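Entry 12.
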Amino acid sequence: MPEKVNAIAILQRVPVFEGLSEEKLGKVSKLLKPVKAKSCTTIIKENTKGENLFILLDGEVRVSRFIKGKEEAITFLKPGCLFGEMAILGDLERSATIIAHTDVVMFTLKGSEFINLLNKDKELGFNVYKKMAEILAQRLKALDKRYHDILALI
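Predicted 3D structure (tokens):
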């Protein structure tokens, strides 16, 4: 893993960790594991159980759904984005497939360890859950707009 200072600097640029103290970020950084994936590698497969969440450090990933066997790209994520969090928030199946659009470098966090940390440190938990809710609300709003734009074409 990159030096702790670098991991903290990276976390400071991830919206879900925005505004957290270096002490809080240091706790999160201890859970990070570096991962690489080659272009076209499936990182997350929709409709499967998942335990890890990811922070994209370098490269780009594609968020897709497969409809009648055909890939429908929903969006592309760039460095600094967190993904895979929905499965750990409610023990849900993955809602989309995440594919490395380019070669990527990521941090992964084991969901159960991350949730344990958020439950132990109430201030950290409140701030992270609040940011996650804001990010998910923005994603839902964008998806709703896209849905309505598509309906307008029919």
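Annotation: The chain has one domain: 4-153. Helices lie at 4-12, 22-29, 85-90, 111-120, 122-153.
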